[in-house]
Amino acid sequence: MPKKAVGFVHGPDYVQSLARGLQVLRGFDAEHSNPTLADIAARTRLSRAAVRRLVLTLQHLGYLRAEGRGYAITPRVLELGFGYLGSLNFTDTVQPMLESLALKVNRSCSMAVLDAQSIVYIARVPVRRVMSAALGIGARLPAFVASMGRVLLSGLSDADLRTWLSQCETRKLTAHTVTDPRKLRRLVEDVRESQYAYVEQELELGLCSIAVPVHNKIGRIAAALNVSLPYHEHVAREATETMLPKLRDTAKAIERCLPTQGMASVSL
Fold first, then answer.
1. Kindly report the CA angle at 227 between 225 and 231, in degrees rounded to 5?
2. Angle between helices 16-25 and 48-61 (to 10 degrees)
3. Termini Cα distance of the chain
4. H-type helices in 62-203, by residue range?
5. Cα atoms in the Cβ-side hemisphere of radius 13 Å centred on 167
6. Tens-digit pLDDT string for the chain (268 aa)
7. 40 burial type by CB count under 10 A (0-12 exposed, 13-18 middle, 19+ buried)
8. Are 73 and 25 in contact (CB under 8 A)?
9. Dihedral sign, Cα of residue 146, residue 237, residue 216, residue 181
């Protein structure tokens, strides 16, 4: 955590209970959809007593519900994310463009933004199941190993990129995963030059993807757009020669339709 952030955490304006409540909500995902209080405490590293109070409060507010011995997240949490998406008018503008792109390339297409060490999916059109995990709006993946993540990182300043890499906890997900911070930095710098990122079997064996930036009205990178492909001998050529031009055309179309004050530039 940056020094400035650490200082704020210990300052008078930091609301610890709010931070912990959000920490509890982030503890729910596809693999942990019905955790018990003990499970939540283990995942959040909070005390059982604190977790109990937070869960009961979130249940009272309608964000969680009791389900057997555990708890489940409710659709009400969508209000927290779709306020952001709604402000960008995504349903009416971006989604049809992704659907058109997916139809042209016959592949799954996605759009994501950077959030700390992760990318967060804000739009997606699944066509062919290439990845083992099901992804939807709000899904997260580690940015260091994703094509959209590297595109988004290329929008950071040199100083912010150094800070981001110093905080990144890389891990080998496949034999192809790049984990060396120096090599990751070179890859991001290459993306700045080429304006696209291609990742082959680093996140999951058999999965490849290519991504391009989506710029906001002031010309800064705000989001990334990608196409997923299954691995085959000539997949890199297919990605750069067939998918890349269509991705760039769609990104430009999305940029023309974004509101003047909508998407923030990528930042830490």
1. 145
2. 80
3. 11
4. 78-87, 94-105, 147-153, 158-167, 181-194
5. 16
6. 555 566 777 788 888 889 999 999 988 876 777 899 999 999 999 999 999 999 999 999 988 989 888 998 886 776 676 666 665 566 677 889 999 999 999 999 999 999 889 998 988 999 866 665 667 888 889 999 999 999 999 999 999 999 999 999 999 999 999 999 999 999 999 999 999 999 999 999 999 999 999 998 889 999 999 999 999 999 999 999 999 999 999 999 999 887 655 677 888 7
7. buried
8. yes
9. positive
Here the tokens at position 124 are 């997606």
- Bridge partners of 71, per DSSP, are 66
Q: Give the position of tokens 């800070």.
A: 163
CB of 63 closer than 8 Å to CB of 70 = no
DSSP state of 159: H
* Radius of gyration for the chain, computed over Cα atoms and rounded to the nearest angstrom: 19
DSSP-based three-state secondary structure for 43: helix
Closest CA to 85 of 268, 205, 266, 263: 263
Strand partners for 228: 209
Torsion sign across C-alpha atoms 128, 131, 133, 139: negative
- What is the distance between the alpha carbons of residues 131 and 121, in angstroms, rounded to a whole number? 15
Dihedral of alpha carbons 29, 33, 36, 37, sign: positive
In this structure, what token pair is assigned to residue 262?
């909508």
